[in-house]
């Protein structure tokens, strides 16, 4: 898993009814884009994450602007 600053980290809910948790990667602490990452989540919480199998990276250059 590789990421850059500005990419989105999505932690999928593991139980029925649990929503995905989405945050922006604000620092890549590993080498060559590898974890751990410092992530700022939508609720303002910031923490260090080493993503597991229930997590995906959405690269900012691949995201489509709304309406396009």
From TrEMBL:
Domain DUF1918: 1-57
Pfam families named in the record: DUF1918 (PF08940)
InterPro entries documented for this protein: DUF1918
Region feature (Disordered): 44-68
Ranges annotated as biased composition (Basic and acidic residues): 55-68
Family annotation (Gene3D superfamilies): Domain of unknown function DUF1918 (2.30.30.440)
Name of the protein in its database record: DUF1918 domain-containing protein
Species the sequence originates in: Streptomyces lannensis
């Amino acid at each position: 898993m590789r990421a850059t600053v500005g990419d989105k980290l999505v932690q999928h809910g593991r139980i029925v009814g649990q929503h995905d948790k989405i945050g922006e990667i604000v620092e890549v602490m590993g080498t060559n884009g590898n974890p751990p990452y410092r992530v700022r989540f939508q609720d303002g919480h910031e923490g260090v994450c080493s993503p597991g199998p229930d997590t995906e990276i959405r690269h900012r250059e691949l995201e489509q602007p709304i309406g396009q």
